[in-house]
């Protein structure tokens, strides 16, 4: 029983940290999108319109990974125990 409580706390903190990082990355792209795009397009030699698609793919994949590997196990542990 003690292990499941500890595991639940670990998944809870992992979820909180990863959702915070996801929110920070989203806000950075909203507020400083043009500046970030110009730097990345020069650095990686990618066109700006392609970068915006790449940013959205990154955010979508990161959100999916956070939900599947952090949030869902946390919710399951809270429901079961």
What descriptive keywords fit this protein?
membrane; single chain; DUF6868; mainly alpha; 81 residues; 3 helices
What does this structure look like?
With 81 residues, the protein is an all-alpha fold. The chain has one domain (2-80). The chain is built from three helices and no strands. Helix 1 runs antiparallel to helix 3. The model has no long low-confidence stretch (mean pLDDT 95).
Topology:
Layout (H helix, E strand, L loop, with lengths): L1 H30 L1 H12 L3 H33 L1
Helix pairs in contact: 1-3
Enumerate the spans where pLDDT stays under 50 for 5 or more consecutive residues: none
Rg is 17 Å
Tally the helices: what do you get? 3
Structural class: mainly alpha
What kind of sheet is the major sheet? none
Strand content: under 5%
The tally of structural domains comes to: 1
* Succession of helices and strands: HHH
- Which descriptor suits the 3D outline? elongated
Cα distance spanning the termini:
8 Å
What level of helicity do the residues show?
A: over 70%
What's the count of strands? 0
* Average pLDDT taken over every residue: 95
Could you give a quick summary of the protein structure above?
By secondary structure, this protein is mainly alpha-helical.
